[in-house]
Amino acid sequence: TYVVTDACIRCKYMDCVEVCPVDCFYEGENMLVINPSECIDCGVCEPECPAEAILPDTENGLEQWLELNTTFSAQWPNVTRKLDQTPPDADEHKGEDGKYDKYFS
Ligand code: SF4
Ligand code: F3S
Whose CA is nearest to atom 8 of ligand 1? Predict the structure, then answer.
C-alpha cells in the first residue's frame, strides 16, 4: 500500500484524490490519509503530490504512518474530488519540519 505522511499536513493539495482509480482517500481537517485495505498499489498518486507526502509503505520507518492511515481512514469521510480544501497558506507549510507535533489534530 501507499501511505500519506506528515508532509501533507496543512498542505492538502488534493491532486492525489483526482488520480486515484479506487477513491481510497479520506479527509481530516489538516491532512488526508489512504485506506490501506482499499489501495491497489498502483502508485499513480505518488508523483502527483506537490509536497511529496505519499510514499510506499515498503520504505523504512513508515510504520507510524501506516498505522495512522489505517486508524483515520476508518474514521474520516471518504473524499473523491478536489474542491476548495487546499489552505491558502499551503505553500508556506510545504517542506516544513515537525508538522505532526505542531499541527496534527
Ligand atoms: Fe490510490 Fe493508487 Fe495511490 Fe493507492 S497508490 S492511493 S490506489 S492512486
Ligand atoms: Fe496531501 Fe499531497 Fe494529496 S499534500 S492532499 S497527499 S496531493
Answer: 20
